[in-house]
Amino acid sequence: MLSVKKFTKRILISAFFLVFALVLSISTVLAAPCGEVYLGGFAAGFMLNTQTVEVIGVCDVLSDNGLVCPARDSGIKSGDIISKVNDYDVTSAEELTNLLNESFKNYKLTVVHGGEERIVEITPAKDKSTGKNRFGLLVKDSVNGIGTITYIDKNNNTFASLGHPVTDLEGNLVKINGGSIYGCLIYDVKKGWRGNPGELKGVFENDNMIGSVTLNCPSGIYGQVSQDFSTENLIKIKRGTVSEAEIGKAKIYSSLEDNEVCDYDISIVKVDAGNKDNRNFVIKIDDKRLIDKSGGIVQGMSGSPIVQNGKLIGAVTHVFVNDPTRGYGIAIDNMTGS
What backbone torsions phi and psi does residue 243 show, to the nearest 5 degrees? Predict the structure, then answer.
């Protein structure tokens, strides 16, 4: 439920948003935390380095022949993914720039849009001011947004968040080259209503880096927290299992304003331990405070921990579009980064 410009109506989405390099051992992230962990519930800003280079616009190049735009002339449009230059793979904007200045005799770009691939022949223009080749492309290789940390395991300095993957507009999991998480100041809550999910609005604290992202997978975003990250004000809690969850009262923890983590009353109305989409719980918001503030579950609250009978049993993942007071949750058993 990452609140991001680019993600879908699943809470989150894109709101992370997201960018980043895989430098840590995946085995560390995949290890399921045991015993006690520290309860999250606080909002974080996610910045993810993608493995794709997306066109977000085209622009003119001032050349010796005046203003020209090779990209526009070649039919390249916003939303296109540049996957190759000639036979060389492109996974970052830096790689695209480096290949552009290799002075190939001919340039052929492999462009993907809507799952369809095409080859585009293009002749770069030489920028009059710098002497470098340019296609006249504006691109991005990252996404970013707001989500909620579910738990922190100080045994190995790892974190888990969101409870669902960051996806593109077509619902495909975004492949990443790592990333970063930052403290986030929530300054507004856009209230949700039937047919229109709400959203947390916040700003990243660029001087408060919490840790690094190493994995985006079907059960959430995972990574390492900084060695000096303080858990002094966090609650230590035992992990439960989906088999311990029961229909009835529970709580979620989330931060909606003043960056204060608050607990809100909910009801678990359905438990589905074997759900293949990790929608293990159906929950209903009962707390009038939360309904008054946000209408219920909003984008950015994905990852908010679910606690029942004193144990961490899961995390909020999605909202019902037609009823923001209801949503889905993932069992904590499944939040292992696999």
Answer: -70, -20
Residue 126 CA to residue 148 CA, distance in Å, equals 45
- Whole-number mean pLDDT of the chain? 88
On whether the pTM is more than 0.85, the answer is no
- Residue ranges and CATH numbers for the domains of the chain are 1-50+144-338 (2.40.10.120), 60-135 (2.30.42.10)
**What are the angstrom distances between the C-alpha of 48 and each of 22, 152, 176, 312?**
11, 19, 6, 27
C-alpha torsion 258→239→17→182, nearest 10: 50
Residues 6+ apart with CB under 8 A from 119: 108, 109, 110, 111
Reported for 101-108, long-range contacts at CB under 8 A and 24+ positions apart, including other chains, are: 101/132, 101/133, 103/133
Per-residue pLDDT band for 338 (boundaries 50, 70, 90) equals low
Residue 236 above 70 pLDDT?
Answer: yes
